[in-house]
Amino acid sequence: MKTEEKANEYLPLRDVVFNTLRESILTGEMKPGERLMEIHLANRLGVSRTPIREAIRMLELEGLVTMIPRKGAEVAQITEKGLRDVLEVRQALDALAMELACERITEEEIRELRRACDTFAQMTRTQDAVRIAQADVALHDIIVHASGNDRLIQMVGNLSQQMYRYRLEYIKDVSQHGRLIEEHEEIYRCIRSRDGKAGAKAIRMHIYNQEQSILSQIQQKKKEPGSRSV
Questions:
Q1: Can you tell me the distance from the alpha carbon of 173 to that of 127, in angstroms, rounded to the nearest whole number?
Q2: Exposure of 34 in the CB half-sphere (CA atoms within 13 A)
Q3: DSSP code, position 127
Q4: pTM of the predicted model, to two decimals?
Q5: Spatial CB neighbours of 17, under 8 Å, sequence gap ≥ 6
Q6: Residue 229 · residue 221 · CB < 8 Å
Q7: pLDDT for 147-189, tens place per residue?
Q8: For position 26, what pLDDT does the model report?
Q9: Nearest-CA neighbor of 146 among 207, 88, 203?
Q10: Contact 140, 132 (CB under 8 A)
Q11: Beta strand pairing status for 65-68 and 72-75?
Q12: Residue 48 near residue 5 (C-beta atoms within 8 A)
């Protein structure tokens, strides 16, 4: 976690700190339930406590940090309710994006989607969860942008940071990689044939399977001594 690598003369220091902490949470460097100690983080990042405090407030608004009475801030737990809330919305948005993309996608975007499917499959061989998640994001972004609906693109973008945590947890389960590749291929076939109805159904199932896998992980973690969630 190095703020100097993210420094940008056009960004306020609080935003640099916010981006640094957010990335650490999303990639799993900072674990659910981990305390965010202002003094410790300030020393670690080489900044004063003020931008740390401001960044923590911003992270709380995004749902990535929870304020615990008499304890302070900690990385938000991955909960069943949080998972369902996020994926219910994402499922609806992605289904709409698929229907619109099947009508509006260009031939160049279809070729781009084909390359993204191939790249994702290649990334699964690395077993690097972050790189695989990035390839998955890139693939889905092509579909969303192909919808041609700016408001929809904005809404998906606003949800993407919270979605990324769940996506990463899913991708960490290597046993799901084969199914993910197959589902991406089905999504591609639907878009290639411009079958919006089948495409919406395929992407809804794609996200449903993700939800079920992560729910299983959460429930398994609950059985572990001293664990509250993933």
A1: 10
A2: 16
A3: T
A4: 0.79
A5: 3, 45, 47, 51, 52, 54, 55
A6: yes
A7: 999 999 999 988 887 788 888 888 988 999 999 999 999 999 9
A8: 81
A9: 203
A10: no
A11: antiparallel
A12: no
3-state secondary structure of 74: strand
Residue 187 to residue 175: CA distance in whole angstroms: 20
Burial status of residue 102 (CB atoms within 10 A of its CB: 0-12, 13-18, 19 or more): buried
Q: Is the pLDDT of residue 5 over 50?
A: no
Q: What percent of the chain has pLDDT over 70?
A: 93
CA 211 to chain centre: 13
* Paired tokens of 50: 């003020």
Q: What are the pLDDT digits (tens) for 101-149?
A: 999 999 999 999 999 999 999 999 999 988 999 999 999 999 999 999 9
Report d(CA 102, CA 163) in Å as an integer: 23
Q: Does 79 have pLDDT greater than 50?
A: yes
Report how far residue 66's alpha carbon sits from residue 167's, in angstroms, rounded to the nearest whole number.
20
Indicate the SS3 state at residue 65.
strand
Buried b / exposed e along 125-137 (16+ C-beta atoms within 10 A): eeeebbbbbbbbe
Please give the C-alpha separations between residue 167 and each of 16, 59, 78, 123, 157, in angstroms, as whole numbers: 24, 19, 12, 15, 14
